[in-house]
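Q: Sequence in, structure out?
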Amino acid sequence: MFSKTILSLSTTAILIAGAASAETQASTWTDLNMRSGPGPMYSIVGVIPANEIVMVQGCTAEAGWCLVTRGDVTGWSAGNYLTTSIALSSINTPTTIQTVTYDHETEAAQGGLAAGAIAGAIIAGPPGAIVGGIIGAVTGTVFAPDPTVVTYITENPVENIYLDGEVVVGAQIPETVTFAPVPDTTYSYAYINGVRVLVETGQRAVIYIAR
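A: Exactly. Output:
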């Protein structure tokens, strides 16, 4: 379940993908939503800024969503965007797995779960990838569209679509999603998993999220 990438002579980064040690510190390479439940159809309760440390209380066994705490906010984030570091000397030490559960039926009954069908799956790119020539987290540069573009996609809403996975910069949107064009630009946009995303049309890659 774990993917390892050596960061230096003293640490190893571990991708959290379905399980984590109790009260594990983790960070994310990009801004990452915190949701009220473990899935894309739950409301957003906060955002973890890139490279900020959060506490992971545990992860679901079946879907890789992790219960995290940032300050006084606790919510669920996609585990495949969270990494944690351990000393190289600890690699062979058994890790205590903390699995957490969630009552989806109770949340739905209370109105905390949005209705709708999953229309496909988001294709997540590797951390730090450069998608379609867009400078990403590998350089630390953040793409900022013209304010008129952000205003347009905010004032011209389209139907919200739910996809399996989380919306982050660099993710690719499947062909099942139809984009709306942004006039006088090469961009398109869509409302996915409750957020407004600006897309590089040719690559179908998310280049900006209007929060």
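The mean pLDDT is 76.
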